[in-house]
Specification:
The structure holds two protein chains of two kinds. By secondary structure, chain A is an alpha/beta fold. Chain A folds into three domains: 217 residues, P-loop containing nucleotide triphosphate hydrolases (Rossmann fold, 3-Layer(aba) Sandwich); 164 residues, P-loop containing nucleotide triphosphate hydrolases (Rossmann fold, 3-Layer(aba) Sandwich); 72 residues, no CATH class. Chain A contains 21 helices and 20 strands. In chain A, strand 1 and strand 2 form a beta hairpin. The N terminus and C terminus of chain A are likely disordered. Chain B is an all-alpha fold. Chain B has a single domain, classed as ABC transporter involved in vitamin B12 uptake, BtuC (Orthogonal Bundle), CATH 1.10.3470. The radius of gyration of chain B is 20 Å and the shape is globular. The N terminus of chain B is likely disordered. Classes of the chains: A alpha/beta, B mainly alpha.
Chain lengths: 548, 334
């Protein structure tokens, strides 16, 4: 142990974590001094959440060491991390829905008086300790979660997107309380996509990029640009080449009729105003930070959720989807990031590919095996699916699984494909194949809408890109200009060259916040409904975790 | 929902509030009690001679199943299920019957303690297999139901053995008033002595926590694996008591499992425990058992074909759960 490290409250170095072929953390380090509020920054998928989960023992690192106050700690479970003074408030509240608040506090052995103190400090006045956690609104639950963490006075408190689901007044109180932790003996690690909040409460920021710590920045009024630069890295300068085909496609789409038109689509409190056209023969990129309304947009387009307002037109005809089957019938097919959502893992590659279109080959009676086989084989060949493990899809690699989900639509003849981060967690070679495939589909006249969390994919695959922030489309960028710095700035809703004036940015955040919570409890979560529990209460909408 | 929103600062809740909140948390059980009262009234109506003897019989016949239902409820609350309860009851009861045969009265106490320990051990085996092998609990316990049933036949090939006299006396007859059957008192004492402390302990909270939301429980610092194994152990203990009550009421050990496994699941469902875990208690399932028993008695009084009576039991089970869910749905909408 060197003298330099002994002054640190938390010192994590050389943390690595891989999931199969996917490297989540390559070499992450995080050093936090006592008495500071430290921001952990990074674009989507940079490894922030993985690092926090490792620090709190929710997952185990492959290697690396974690020291608290100079003493090395093994954290193999949240209970151990707790004893070591590492406590996190996660994106989804960690309260047990079927226990009342008081029992939840007893479960984590939280002292009651400090908890009451913090609840008051955080501005939550009407909390009934004997009400079941499932009956408490999401925003209040997050405050309870935070107060519970504060009450046990942890050495290191980690807040993962703490303010994401809070109304403006509570956000203010939270930031104030977090700010007050400065200068003491303990520290706070603060994760947020809102640069304004970072600037308001944080002393320093550690920036992660692709699973690696790339820099530590002192937060000042002008540090935003530096942080964005670090998040981008060298990729900011290099420009991937892809020219002629794009131009041709763009020219073709200019005089065509849009395949899909969205007009002011709204969904609850997440999506406020989405309007765009998707033309045949193009790949339209969608760029957004986590939780800006892109999930809702794709759910609406895929027919699994109904919009609360706005209009959707397919081939200039208004449509209203009640069920994903309606969307598929209208030619809109959906490829999800999570393969498990789409595939029958225990069945063969052949069955999985054939599933969506067998009904079209023969509606009743026996399936025409010959016709099915020829179609499926065609799709397998086009996609270069490695079929050595074709007996059961679950034994394929993630990349090959994703190719199967795309193949099933290709086999059926695709007209409009909605891809939600299709290359998440996939090796580079397969990614390239998927890029080529999407391009080929567009060349063949299909319209492709591609949400991607990897900004460089935009220039590799797309013809143009739209950017969503706070449930609104805030920019449309032609592919030639869509380099990573431009996209990232747009995603943070910063103007291309200058940082956004503080007051405007604050307003954006405030309005976004005000809307966000009102309907937070009103949605019955899809999983609950899907597994058919007798549970009929409205279940809080839980933020999906995109940051893997 | 909470009309009496006690603010955070209220240090002590008033007794009325406590009672109110207890009533809210046990609404299902209270509703079931109402249903039970209706059934009793109906029984008296169709069989005017139904009285002390009827209640005595009801208590004795309900005791083994009630203990089995408590055992099942504990595992189901923790988010699991155990399909070997019937076999485990058979095994523990024949072990007890064989050990007690021809032995002095005092030795019976040793046997009772040993059999309860055996039950804890059997439960620990089930729980450890579920946790360590990661095979689904429904599969593990189904497989173990064959293992325990086989063991029971190895111990005793045909009904036999004996029960100590004091054990039989423990549940026969009444205490004080003729309307208070000993069997009911024994049940209440056992459940109160074991369940109430458990319910109030951190283990009890963990039990509900892992059934309600396992990832959140894990993040709250609950040791999920250990809690699951302990839940199965506790189940084993209650199952052993159920086995003992079986020989206490019949006087001999029977190596072939009765219909207790599925009946215990039925009672648990009827008793308002969510099969998804995390919700309910042991009081509801006990009332559920009494209801299932009394329905059977009524069918006999009405001279219904016994086969038809089984069909009716199933229909009533579905009906009660459905009506209950509808009521809850309306309440949560209101």
């Amino acid at each position: 142990m060197t003298a330099a490290t002994t002054g640190l409250l938390l010192d994590a170095t050389g943390i690595t974590k891989t999931y199969g072929a996917v490297v989540a953390l390559k070499s992450a380090s995080l050093a936090v001094r006592p008495g500071e509020v430290h921001a952990l920054m990074g674009a989507n998928g940079a490894g922030k959440s993985t690092l926090v989960k490792i620090l709190t023992g929710a997952i185990r690192p492959d290697s690396g060491r974690i020291a608290v106050r100079g003493r090395e700690r093994t954290v193999h479970s949240p209970a151990e991390a707790r004893r070591g003074g590492l406590v996190s408030v996660y994106q989804e509240p960690a309260l047990i829905p079927d226990l009342d608040i008081r029992s939840n506090l007893r479960l984590t052995q939280t002292p009651l008086e400090p908890f009451r103190h913090w609840v008051r400090e955080l501005g939550l006045t009407d909390l009934d300790l004997s009400s079941l956690a499932r009956r408490v609104p999401l925003a209040s639950l997050r405050i309870v979660d935070l107060a519970r963490a504060l009450a046990i006075e942890p050495d290191v408190l980690m807040l993962d997107e703490m303010t994401a689901a809070l109304p403006a007044n509570l956000t203010e109180r939270v930031l104030e309380v977090v700010g007050r932790q400065r200068g003491g003996d303990r520290c706070v690690i603060f994760i947020s996509h809102r640069l304004i909040e970072i600037a308001a409460v944080c002393d320093r920021a550690t920036v992660l990029r692709e699973g690696e710590t790339v820099g530590v920045v002192d937060v000042t009024a002008r540090s935003e640009e530096r942080i964005v630069e670090l998040m981008l890295g060298e990729a900011a300068t290099g420009k991937p080449e892809r020219t002629s085909a794009t131009a041709a496609a763009a020219a073709r789409s200019a005089d065509a009729r849009p395949r899909l038109t969205a007009r002011s689509l709204r969904s609850g409190t997440k999506l406020h105003d989405a309007s765009f056209d998707l033309y045949p023969g193009e790949v339209l990129g969608v760029v957004a930070l986590e939780g800006q309304g892109q999930d809702e947009l794709f759910d609406i387009l895929a027919g699994s959720e109904r919009p609360s307002g706005g209009e959707l037109l397919v081939d200039a005809t208004p449509v209203s989807f009640r069920h994903p089957a309606d969307a598929i019938r209208a030619g809109l097919v959906y490829v999800a990031a999570d393969r498990a959502e789409a595939l029958l893992m225990q069945r063969s590659v052949r069955e999985n590919i054939a599933l969506p279109f067998t009904t079209r080959i023969r509606r009743w009676g026996l399936i025409d095996a010959g016709k099915e086989r020829s179609k499926v084989d065609g799709a397998i060949a086009v996609l270069q699916i490695d079929t050595r493990a074709k007996g059961e899809v679950r034994r394929l690699s993630g990349g090959n699984q994703q190719k199967v989900t795309i193949a099933r639509w290709v086999a059926g003849g695709v007209r409009t494909m909605l891809c939600f981060d299709p290359t998440r967690g996939i090796d580079i070679r397969t990614k390239d194949q998927i890029y080529v495939l999407l391009r080929d589909l567009a060349e063949a006249g299909a319209a492709v809408l591609l949400y991607t969390s990897e900004l460089k994919e935009v220039q590799l695959v797309c013809d143009r890109a739209i950017v969503i922030f706070g449930g609104r489309i805030v920019a449309e960028i032609a592919v030639a200009d869509a380099d990573e710095p431009t996209l990232l700035r747009a995603a943070y809703n910063l103007r291309p060259d200058a940082a956004m004036p503080e007051d405007v940015a604050a307003e954006v955040v405030a309005t976004e916040l005000a809307g966000e919570v009102a309907g937070a409890g009103a949605r019955v979560s899809a999983e609950r409904a899907a597994i058919g529990t007798v549970d009929v209460e409205p279940v809080e909408h839980v933020e999906p975790e995109n940051d893997r | 929902m909470t009309a009496s929103a006690a603010p955070v600062d209220a240090v002590r809740a008033r007794p009325v509030d406590v009672l109110g909140s207890w009533a809210r948390h046990n609404a299902w059980a209270i509703g079931l009690l109402g249903f039970l009262a209706l059934l009793l009234a109906y029984t008296k109506l169709i069989q005017p001679s139904y009285g002390v003897a009827g209640v005595q019989g009801l208590a004795i016949s309900a005791l083994p199943l009630a203990l089995a239902a408590v055992a099942q409820a504990i595992v189901v609350i923790s988010g699991g299920i155990d399909l070997s309860i019937g076999s485990m009851m058979a095994l523990t009861s024949v072990v007890a019957a064989v050990l007690m045969k021809g032995q002095p009265e005092e030795f019976g106490v040793v046997v009772v303690v040993a059999v309860v320990l055996l039950g804890l051990f059997l439960g620990a085996v089930n729980g450890s297999l579920v946790v360590l092998t990661r095979v689904p609990d429904i599969v593990v316990t189904l497989a173990m139901s064959f293992v325990w049933a086989g063991c029971a036949l190895l111990v005793l090939q045909s009904p036999g053995g004996a029960a100590t006299k004091w054990l039989k006396d423990l549940i026969l007859g009444s205490l004080g008033s003729a309307w208070v059957p000993k069997a009911a008192v024994v049940l209440i004492v056992i459940v109160a002595l074991v369940w109430i402390p458990v319910r109030r302990s951190r283990f009890g909270l963990s039990l509900y926590a892992i059934g309600s939301n396992r990832p959140a429980a894990f993040r709250s610092g609950v040791s999920v694996g250990r809690t699951r194994i302990l839940a199965y152990m506790l189940m084993g203990g209650f199952t052993a008591l159920a086995g003992l009550s079986l020989i206490a009421s019949t006087g001999i050990g029977t190596p072939v499992p009765g219909p207790y496994t599925l009946m215990s699941v039925a009672a648990v469902v009827l008793g308002g425990v969510s099969l998804a875990g995390g919700r309910g208690g042991v009081f509801g399932p006990i009332v559920g058992v009494v209801i299932l028993q009394i329905i059977r008695t009524d069918m006999t009084f009405l001279n219904v074909d016994p086969n038809m009576a089984v069909v009716a039991q199933g229909v009533i089970l579905i009906g009660v759960v459905m009506v209950g869910s509808l009521v809850q749905l309306r309440r949560s909408r209101a």
